[in-house]
User: Fold this.
Amino acid sequence: MMTWYVVDEMDGAGKSTAGEILVQELESRRRKVLFIEHLNRSILAGRLESAFLLKEGKLFVILSTLAYVADVLHSLMVMRGRKGREADDVVFVRYSMAVAYLSDGACSKADRLVKALLPKPDVAVLVDVDPDTAMERIMERGEGIEMFETSERLGKIRHRMLGISDGWIVLDNSVLKDTFRQEMVSRVFGDADAA
Assistant:
C-alpha cells in the first residue's frame, strides 16, 4: 500500500534536505519512492513561479500563487498516474503550507479551502527553523533573493505555518544534521531506536 509523505516549510528551513533524508530512509527499507519537489522547474508552471518569485508586488504574488497551484495540481496528477501507481511511496517537498505565504486573512481562508478540496497526505512533516537561520541558509545558496525572503517576512510566514500545523509532525532543523535525521526517522516512522 502506497504512503504519501509531505515535507513542508518556509524558505531556508531545510525542506530539500529533509526530503532527501526521508527518501533515503524509505529506500533503505526497500521501498520504491516517487520524489516530487515544488517548485518543479521541469514544467512550465514551476518555471513561471520561479520567475514571478524574483519580482515584487501584488500582481507577482498572485501570479506566483497561481503558478504554484498549477505545479501542485500537476504533481497530484502524476501521483495518481502510472508513476504513482508504480511507487511504494510518494514524497512531496512542499505542498499545502504554501498558503502561509499569503497575508494573514488570505492564509486562513486558503488553508480551509485547501483542506476542503485537496487530498490530505498520509504523513505531513513541517520543518521549522528561526527566520534568521533561514536567511543565513538562503544567502549561502548564492541565488537570487525571492520576494518573501527577508527575516521579517519569514518570521510572519513561520508564525502562520505553526498556526495551521495541527496534525503535522513539527521538527526543529536548527540542530546538527545527524540529530535532525535521527529525530525525523524516529518521529515519522516511530522507531524508538533511531532517537
